[in-house]
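Possible regression after last week's pipeline update?

I re-ran a chain I had predicted before the update to compare outputs. Posting the input and the new output here so someone can diff against the archived version. Not blocking, just want to make sure nothing changed silently.
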Amino acid sequence: MATPTVKRQVRGMQRNARRVAVAGAVGAATLSALLLPATPASAQPVTIPGIPTFDVPDNIQLPQGIPGLPASIPVQIPPIPGVQVGPAAPAPAPQNSIHQAAVDAAMSRLGDPYVYGAAGPDAFDCSGLVQWSYAQAGISLPRTSYEQLDTGAPVSYDDLQPGDVVSFYGGSHSGIYIGDGNVVHASTAGQPVAIAAVSSMPFAGARRI
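New output (post-update):
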């Protein structure tokens, strides 16, 4: 027969066992909540000039199952002047340069007649074609071929690019370089506006407008 002292010791051991079991269950639940991955939060991209784009979550997720803690903490991002939030607007489509616009204008007059002193829109002399073509691109050029040889920046024969104004015969004749070694020009009486090789005439210089 157990003495009262032994009974008290047994009851104390039983209470301690129950406390250990409860504490173990609470600890396991807390550890499980900390280790389980939180549900991914939605995010919005933030773009700052000179810094790669990064994502900022709309909500910061917290471990689930901890009494007294909310599921998430909202994050408010105030507008910042000069900083774009969200996808960037698409860049505008590239447009033809003034040089290509001048080339296109001159090419549109292929076959038009040569008339001395004419500057378009239906007949041209050499400098008149150059002047009219650049006017369609919004650029005003001098009227004569000699003046056109003194306009813009000088360009070497080997550095010609479409749109360059090319002069021949000491500056008395001009045309517009179109690439591949060719110019479009109004050559002489009886000949329409046409394409010719740069090498087919004595080169006097070239200018980039």
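Follow-up from reviewer: compared with the archived run. The first helix runs from residue 4 to 35. Marking as no regression found.
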